[in-house]
Model the fold of this input.
Amino acid sequence: MAASPYLRRRLANLAALAASAAATAIGLAFLGWILWVTVQRGLGALGPALFTGITAYGAEGGLANAIVGSLMMDVMALLIATPIGVLAGTWLAEYARRSRLGAVVRFLNDILLSAPSIVLGLFVYMIVVLPMSNWTGGRVSFSGVAGAIALALIALPVIVRTTDEMLQLVPGTLREAALSLGIPSWKVTVQVLMRAASSGIVTGVLLALARLAGETAPLLFTAFGNNFMAIDPLDKMASLPVAIYQYTNDPAPALHAIAWAGALLITGFVLLLGLAARGLLARHKVAHD
Amino acid sequence: MSSPIAIATRAIDLRSRADARHDAWFRWLLASCGLLVLAALLGAALATLWGGREVLFGHGFAFLTSAEWNPVSGEYGALAPVYGTLVTSLVALLLAVPVAFGIAMFLTEIAPAWMRAPVASAIELLASIPSIIYGMWGLFVFVPFMARVEPAISATLGRLPLVGGLFQGPPIGLGLLTAGIVLAVMILPFICAVMREVFQAVPVRLRESAYALGATTWEVVWHIVLPYTRGAVVGGIFLGLGRALGETMAVTFVLGNSYAITGSLLMPGTSISSAIANEFNEAVGTHRSALIALGFLLFVVTFVVLLVARLMLRRLARREGA
Done:
């Protein structure tokens, strides 16, 4: 027993290694558990009725209006967030890389990236839904446009950050070569640098879309949800996550099955987007070497 | 009569002046987009402050200190939701930090090279699963599971002195502990990603010196790697805390929505975000204002937490650069 310092250290090391491997197993187990349940319960409810029926018909219904609403709002959100985000990211990388204001914006963008999405929903409720409702006398209140703006606020920091990072990776020699030809700097930025970073920027947009697709909280009081098919952007609009939320809160098991099918659709979509983004990024890296 | 050379010079002059003008416009356009990010954050704070003014300024400190939340009698105290938010986030951190540390250690020090990339991507997948899926899984799968496990928890942990009271209550599955565990799984990948990244950034010569002196893997991690990366690790933990505080959907499903402040983790509770999600669309007048005021509170708290997180992370990045 007296000669035990070495033994004690080795035992401590062994215990730490085992605990570390166990932690990894726990993490992977939860991932497997969640994915397995989603696939198993979702596949059972997957069928053509899901894409033809609307949510108003309950157990016989589907998610057609929710899928259309989600697609419309996601596309609108990207149409708002992509130009603003790419331009803002370009500003950070090309014009404010070392300025104090740029550092502050970059810092706050990182905070916006993990800000609670429900507060962003409240924000859009205050600046879009309420004024619209007052202005039109309550005819237009919750709307697809408001939902899209809330989602755009979530997409914006993702796009700003990836654009900034990708442009910083573009070699400085490219910049100098273009400028030395006498090309004005805005043309250098748009036609040379952005093109060089294009696959990285597209990756950012895909990652942003992956985050939007599952967002529920900010849509509750901006787009609200709609049990019928609505394609007017000024109408209340259904979305996949909100429909899942409503169905899950309902006591009827038949509706839970539809909710699981919706969950499988969203999870599959998000994972596919993640793979696509990763693939694009990998190709990008190879191209630069 | 001007010479051809003079005409050409004038044309070039005009051209370069136009270029300069376009450059200025372009720069101005980009800068205004950049400032929109600032405007979004500031606007979110001001809009929720404005929307909650009736309760924030009208009720003053009573809003923060009262535990009474009763829309019928018009009483709004934020204590119960604030308590629920803090307790669930704390439980989540207590569970997620050691597990994230274990995974980060496994991925940087222990696992064979072929295993590292796939396991790391799998853990990252946890971050990309939408929170509504966590909520459904929590409600339909994890809550029933917890309802089966909770009697055992009460019988063992509940007997302990001092902390025993935390683990006593009806085995219904819903409650602060369940919400904390679901949150822990959700924030695990964020904390783990930061830890892994900074562990990898530790200079190889530090590590190798320690190994050369005969240190074990655990000693290298505990005495060399962790002290070197302490600031960033704390930053990563705060990043996870910021996520946990603001998380809505998953918590809403498994928390049980009861405005009671209880000493037991097995009892149902409420949180700021789930109160807003549950009640906002049925609320009018003062009730709505109280919910927006809760949102303002949440925004301020998460902003401070994330600010600390980013400052800690930035400090390490700067030291690395030096």
